[in-house]
Specification:
The structure holds 2 protein chains of 2 kinds. Chain A is 36% helix and 17% strand. Chain A is an alpha+beta fold. Chain A has 2 domains: 5-105, Roll (Ubiquitin-like (UB roll)), CATH 3.10.20.30; 108-244, Fumarate Reductase Iron-sulfur Protein, Chain B, domain 2 (Orthogonal Bundle). In chain A, strand 6 and strand 7 form a beta hairpin. By secondary structure, chain B is mostly helical. Classes of the chains: A alpha+beta, B mainly alpha. The A-B interface holds A 14, 16, 19, 22, 72-73, 96, 98-101, 107, 109, 139-142, 144-145, 161, 163, 166-167, 209-213, 216, 223, 225-226, 229-230, 232-234 and B 3-9, 11, 14-15, 17-18, 20-21, 24, 28, 88, 90-95, 98-101.
Chain lengths: 250, 131
């Protein structure tokens, strides 16, 4: 390609003032060798059609705001170069499995309500809580136990890659369950037993059928499929031990 | 708090939306073929218990061209089933070893393949020489 080429973007749009049905709209967008898909959306907004609505913030795949379906696959629009999508056309849709507020903007409320349900925060031991200025030390090997799960940026691409979430919206879902595993695996955390009720519920790990696409689409290299399916083993183990030893401490 | 008006696509035909979904459904469907094969073997056992005539007609059915074709399909399904699940096995096994010295994914999958090969060879050896 050469600078000055153009690519066609087909965008699935929906507007609350036209609620009957979404519609496709095409835009011819000029681009350079280093243009990202997000920059193409910004070009449309600035120069072609100010009514097109989408979320973005950091432009460098760390804020998790600009997720959308690109040619049917969940992607961060700032993480894709247009030259890699040439010659096009590129099909852009809002993230799958979420209610759409307008154009490419989805309603994240469901995920935001699920995050506290999995206890996605560190629960320090009582002595660490009593001495807040004392550092909680951790070896590199202990950090490696949870590090990849801690890279989650809540971009929700994994939810759009999960047909189980689309079919069963109560499912806690890949990112929330990966963040549960992240805190369970942290040597400084003591909150594991409080997270087990959410883990063991039908809407917890057991709604996952290991499609595995969540891990494939994660832009941060998080492995939610591993987090969830290892927790299935732990959930089954606890179920059996609870049957054999009623009243045991978990 | 009032929620904004929204639109949401339904899930009809969701498996057509991504090749990964079709691979997943193929993997799940192989268990139906394997379950069917188990029922066929169970029917054979029933025929064996019923007497020589039912047993011979069951054998005839199994060795007929359509029976052999079905068994070839079941074998293909079993290969897909084994390969896909042995590949996914490391995702389901709790961490083995101490932090910093965890057993890798390749070691876990390889152990499964070795165990499967040993069991298959032992069964084959028993059928050929032991029975």
């Amino acid at each position: 390609m050469t600078d000055g080429d153009a690519i066609r973007l087909d965008v699935l749009r929906w507007h609350p003032d036209r609620p009957a049905a979404p519609w496709w709209q095409s835009y011819e967008v000029p681009y350079r060798a280093d243009s990202t898909l997000l920059e193409a959306l910004q070009t449309i907004k600035d120069a072609l059609d100010g009514t097109l609505t989408f979320r973005w913030s950091c432009r460098m795949a760390i804020c998790g705001s600009c997720g959308c379906m690109v040619n049917g696959r969940p992607e961060l629009s700032c993480h894709l170069l247009l030259r890699d999508l040439a010659p096009g056309p590129v099909r852009l849709e809002p993230l799958a499995h979420f209610p759409v507020i307008r154009d490419l903007v989805i309603d994240q409320q469901d995920f935001l309500e699920k995050l506290p349900a999995v206890g996605a925060y560190l629960v320090p031991a009582a002595d660490a809580e009593a001495a807040p200025d004392t550092p909680s030390r951790q070896t590199p090997a202990q950090m490696a136990e949870y590090y990849q799960y801690a890279q989650c940026i809540n971009c929700l691409l994994c939810y759009s890659a999960c047909p189980q979430y689309g079919l069963k919206p109560d499912f806690l879902g890949p990112a929330a369950l990966a963040l549960m595993a992240r805190h369970d695996a942290d040597s400084r955390d003591t909150g594991g037993s409080a997270r087990k009720a959410a883990r063991d519920a039908e809407s917890g790990v057991w709604d996952c059928t290991l499609v595995g696409h969540c891990t494939e689409v994660c832009p941060q290299g998080v492995d939610p499929a591993r987090a969830i399916n290892r927790n299935k083993t732990a959930s089954a183990r606890d179920y059996v031990f609870d049957l054999l030893m009623p009243g045991r401490r978990r | 708090m009032t929620r904004p008006a929204t639109w949401q696509r339904d899930m009809r035909g969701w498996w057509r939306r991504d090749p990964a979904f079709r691979r997943y459904l193929l993997r799940e469907a192989t268990s139906v073929a394997i379950g069917g094969y188990a029922l066929m073997l169970l029917a054979g056992l029933g025929c064996l218990a019923a007497g020589p005539a039912p047993w011979q007609s069951w054998q005839g059915l199994v060795m007929s061209p359509i029976g052999l074709l079905l068994q070839a399909l079941v074998f293909a399904a079993a290969v897909i089933h084994s390969v896909s699940w042995f590949r996914l096995m490391p995702l389901t096994v709790p961490p083995v070893g101490r932090p910093g010295r965890r057993l890798g994914d390749t070691a876990i999958s390889s152990a499964a393949w070795v165990a499967s090969a040993v069991c298959s060879l032992a069964l084959l050896g028993w059928l050929v020489y032991g029975a």
